[in-house]
Amino acid sequence: MSQEMTRDATNHDLVARLSARLGPAGVLTQEADMAPYAVDWRRLFPGRPACVVRPASTAEVADAVRLCRAAGAAMVPQGGNTGLAGGAAPDASGTQVVVSLARMNAVRAVDPVGLTLTAEAGCVLGTAQAAAEAAGRLLPVSFAAEGSAMLGGVIATNAGGLNVVRYGMTRGLVLGLEVVLADGTVVDGLRALRKDNAGYDWKQWFIGTEGTLGLVTAAVMRLAARPRHVATALLAVPDPDAALRLFTLAQEELGDCIQAFELISGLSLDLVGRHSTLTRPVEPAPWYVLLEAASSLPALREAAEGMLGTAFERGDALDGVLAESGQQAAGLWALREGITEAEAKEGRGVKHDVSVPITAIPAFLEAAGRALAEGAPGARANAFGHMGDGNIHYNVLAAPDHDGDAINRLVHGVVDRFGGSISAEHGIGQYRVAELLRHRRPEEIALARRIKAALDPDGLLNPGKVLSGQILPR
């Protein structure tokens, strides 16, 4: 019997066992049905799964994992499949099982006094946000894909987004987890505790590890009080140094009311203007800052106006607009959120999701620009991102003859010089595996492999993602 025939027979037997346990709604096998699960959002990594399982409960997840492990079948956990690093896409072997958590989508509880929300992994982030809002509270995680990203994927990738400067990354908002391990064991740690110092904080092993150590099935998330007043401003600034001074001023004048501080290059808004009907309400400039502050105190707008007045007096802001309504604020954010789509319409882009110390951002941008001009003449840097937390999306608009891998090495080399990270919020997935091995210290990679070997000794959870090569033997 050929290897392909043996594989098909093994797949058929596993699919039959999974179908018997999960029922007809729980297993997809037709190519057309599996197509949405078989490729990543950016369509860089097309795959071919053996099947897609869609468990409806934690018990079904555990049983599916046991059946896959018994058959030696690799599993690829998947939420909303909105990631940008290919971390939730199967390979093209036809042997991997996609485990979609989409049917586990309940919001189990909202506690407006204890400020917690408990939900299943397949709950869409926007749905969880709406549940918190209905209780008068705020789930602070927010980014462009929140209408389709699912909570389990948000946790598995330690998603960042727009409000990190005030509320931190997802990691800091997770109070408790329920996880299915590689052998099917269910670990229930759904505790709504702000303080729990009893032993290892094991939930951290599964946050940001992209489903390579276990499958998140439910979580307790920390909520925040919902601010009553919001001030949103778009400012034209002369350079990143002025933006950094503006950030310092905003910290001094608005303190922890700042929930977003975005740096946007002139090229970014040029692209938005070229490829959409959106128009900028300020004069053209080399750089822009989109700032948002929120508070329950009524004096927020006056404080924001005073801070902006000082920025104009100092010359750190050249022009600007402070939104007069929620609709106008949404229009300012539409400019920021339209950058990625406009960039895609412009042509080929080599994307970088990097972070450096906040005070190093101006020097990093200057050094990266010089390196790009020398190493990839004609390429254009489209830089924008979350200056308030040190995260810059340093995307490069490249010509067909530009070497994308060479551009990656060039940009990431500059990141190293400033003590930064090659992935601030998008994760490693399969897109940045080689770069992670190049830029992380060998001792860190070895430690990660030891953890992987301990929790997934057979290497069946999302293989080829985050780490490459063989895990350590047991």
Automatic annotation (TrEMBL):
Annotated InterPro entries: FAD-bd_oxidored_4_C, FAD-bd_PCMH, FAD-bd_PCMH-like_sf, FAD-bd_PCMH_sub1, FAD-bd_PCMH_sub2, FAD-linked_Oxase-like_C, FAD-oxidored/transferase_4, Oxid_FAD_bind_N
Family classification: Belongs to the FAD-binding oxidoreductase/transferase type 4 family.
Name of the protein in its database record: FAD-linked oxidoreductase
Stretch forming the signal peptide: none
UniProt domain FAD-binding PCMH-type: residue ranges: 45-226
Keyword annotations from UniProtKB, A to Z: FAD, Flavoprotein
Keyword Repeat recorded: no
Pfam families: FAD-oxidase_C, FAD_binding_4
